[in-house]
From TrEMBL:
Residues 71-260 form the ABC transmembrane type-1 domain. PROSITE patterns: ABC_TM1. This is Sn-glycerol 3-phosphate transport system permease protein. Keywords: Cell membrane, Membrane, Transmembrane, Transmembrane helix, Transport. Belongs to the binding-protein-dependent transport system permease family. It is found in: Cell membrane.
Length: 275
């Protein structure tokens, strides 16, 4: 059924969109409000902070909590994984798209089959490997197991396959090597999809909790997600302080989204059109 285009229908649509936006953003808005509350206001169940606002919660987060160290550790891990995933996924996708060899289809099917294996099923094997390599409490132990991503290979392979074979053949006639074709043509033409994969990988890695908890026990390499958990006490918890720290942690991912928003939109639109 088609809705009429009258003023009433437009009002109903806008009301529905505003309600949906409010429900979606309420956790974030409440976290910001709670970070500006006193402990008394929070215990009383207040929704909005009382005046004056407690900006000291943000200062206490840095004073009583090694936030900068944890943020730096998470940034190192997420950046290393993002760069590695872009390299490995783009090279593998290029191989599956433009290099013809026996068993290419079977190998790609095996890569896709790994998407059906739960990550929890491989965590014990990965942990034993990291322990045997002596990589516990190291940045390579945090990041190396995530350097390859089957989803990234699939996503970029689908994007690369939209390029015409004639383009590859023309560059081969001109004497261009596969590496030159890959760097100068394939990657620039698929920049939006690469940006989409980069944003997705960075945010996913930044929010990882279980793996850093397993492979780290020292404060010098622990990530911010593990640090946030350490703020919660056994009996009582200074929740305004926790919320202030959480808001600053979320700010990092918001910066990534804002910076990569244009490329992310272009990648999503391109993927929808190609699909």
């Amino acid at each position: 059924m088609k809705l009429s285009q009258g003023p009433l229908s437009r009002i109903l649509v806008w009301v529905a969109l505003c309600v949906a936006a409010l429900l979606t953003t309420f956790p974030l808005l409440y976290a910001i409000a709670a970070s500006l509350m006193t402990q008394t206001d929070f215990n009383a169940g207040a929704v909005l902070p009382s005046w004056p606002l407690e900006f000291s919660n943000y200062a206490d987060a840095f004073k009583n909590f090694p936030l900068l160290r944890y943020l730096a550790n998470s940034l190192i891990m997420a950046s290393a994984v993002t760069v590695a995933v872009l390299i490995t996924s783009s090279m593998a996708a290029f191989s599956f798209t433009f290099i013809r060899y026996r068993g290419r289809g079977i190998l790609f099917a095996i890569v896709l089959a790994t998407l059906m294996i739960p990550w929890e099923a491989t965590i014990i094997v990965n942990f034993q490997t990291i322990r045997n390599l002596g990589w516990l409490n190291t940045f390579q132990g945090l990041s190396v197991p995530s350097f390859a991503m089957a989803f990234g290979i699939f996503l970029l392979r689908q994007a690369f396959s939209t390029l015409p074979d004639e383009l590859h053949e023309a560059m081969q006639v001109d004497g261009a090597t596969r590496l030159r074709f890959f760097v100068s043509t394939v990657l620039p033409l698929n920049r939006p999809m690469l940006a989409t994969l980069a944003v997705y990988t960075f945010i996913t890695t930044w929010n990882t909790y279980l793996w850093p908890l397993l492979v780290t026990s020292e404060e010098r390499v622990r990530t911010v997600q593990i640090g946030l958990r350490s703020l919660q006490g056994e009996a009582t918890t200074a929740w305004p302080l926790v919320m202030a720290t959480t808001v600053m942690v979320m700010a990092a991912t918001l910066v990534v989204l804002v910076v990569g928003q244009r490329q992310l939109k272009a990648g999503l639109v391109a993927g929808a059109v190609k699909g």
